[in-house]
Amino acid sequence: MTAGNSDTSRLPLQSDVIDQYDDAAAAIGRLTSVLETQLPLGAVLQQVCEQAVSAIAGADFAAVTLLEHGVGSTAACTDEVARDVDFDQYEAGQGPCLDAASQRATVRASRSDACDRWPLFAEKCAGSPINSFLSSPILSGGEVPAALNLYSYADHGFGTVDEAVLRVYVSCINIIVSSARTSAGIKSELDGLNIAMRSRAVIEQAKGVIMADKGVDADDAFVILTRRSQRENVKVSELAASIVSSVTPSRN
């Protein structure tokens, strides 16, 4: 069961519901295109926030909370207003975003709900223009608990339809965030392989220089190279690059 209020004051028309799902589908489509640009995870989370405001009719602001070792931090947000509300929760040690991340449950609340459920947070954000809260757990690209937080100026700004649409949106962005993390991991591995290949090529060139200079074979040349590396306390690849550079004619 969802943690939140049971507001039924606003019963949306069927056309309104369809429009909201259409907005969510469009936002998800825009997010999917993010993968094609191979943005880093932080930039993906920023897009998650921006598209969430488009997807959920009542949302004015959005933010992503990371909860590491019980300490909250904001990884992305659409405005400083959202960051400030997040920070009020971190300072109070309670609030909708912390509950959503730690309990892995969607949390929906109005300002009056917040006063009852999180009095310390309500006191800290007393001067905030935000009056409604909707948070849902999401994947952060790692093991750290996370939540997508939506904030609204309106009192009782989020209803059951908003919550349902958010669930659909979140289920899709979890796939997108996971894919972004995988893409970043693959890119990192490829970058590492490229560096290793370049280093190996330079080491082979340095061995050739030593073989010509010392009249030794390849194995002995590598021993000489590694011993000098240890003696001078530098990486073998860096020493190899220095040796190759010393015999390479400079270009004017």
UniProtKB/TrEMBL annotation:
It holds the Pfam family GAF_2. It comes from the Bacteria. The lineage of its organism: Bacteria, Bacillati, Actinomycetota, Actinomycetes, Mycobacteriales. Signal peptide: none annotated. Keywords: Kinase, Transcription, Transcription regulation, Transferase. Residues 183-244 form the ANTAR domain. The keyword Transcription regulation applies. This is GAF domain-containing protein. GO terms for molecular function: kinase activity; RNA binding.
